[in-house]
Amino acid sequence: MTKPVVEFQEGPAPTELVIKDLVVGEGKEAVPGGTVEVHYVGVEFDSGEEFDSSWKRGESITFPLRGLIQGWQDGIPGMKVGGRRQLTIPPELAYGAAGSGHHLSGKTLVFVIDLLNAG
């Protein structure tokens, strides 16, 4: 797979998690609390500006879902290896309301995630 281009979304930011499968995988399914290996790119909903990308670092990343933001914990389970999913995550499921200390606080975030492995 190649690095995805995140489409700019028109209109107001959603207030709930929006899950959109771009490619449906056929491999093992990610489960709540499991460990996943992913490639991802994250952009700010309002500006479309990229703030993080495993593609930029040139390597995938593996981690337990329970250690991630709530939007990932809720949005990745059910995905199958080989799939590509877009998550649009409101602040409450990301880094909290504006002013809560993280530079992405108060922002709606959009991630495109490629699931490479699930355990």
UniProtKB/TrEMBL annotation:
The keyword Isomerase applies. Gene3D superfamilies: 3.10.50.40. It catalyses: [protein]-peptidylproline (omega=180) = [protein]-peptidylproline (omega=0). Its EC number is 5.2.1.8. GO terms for molecular function: peptidyl-prolyl cis-trans isomerase activity. Residues 33-119 form the PPIase FKBP-type domain. It comes from the Bacteria. Keywords: Isomerase, Rotamase. It is an enzyme of class 5 (isomerase). Pfam families: FKBP_C. Belongs to the FKBP-type PPIase family. This is Peptidyl-prolyl cis-trans isomerase. It comes from Nocardia xishanensis.
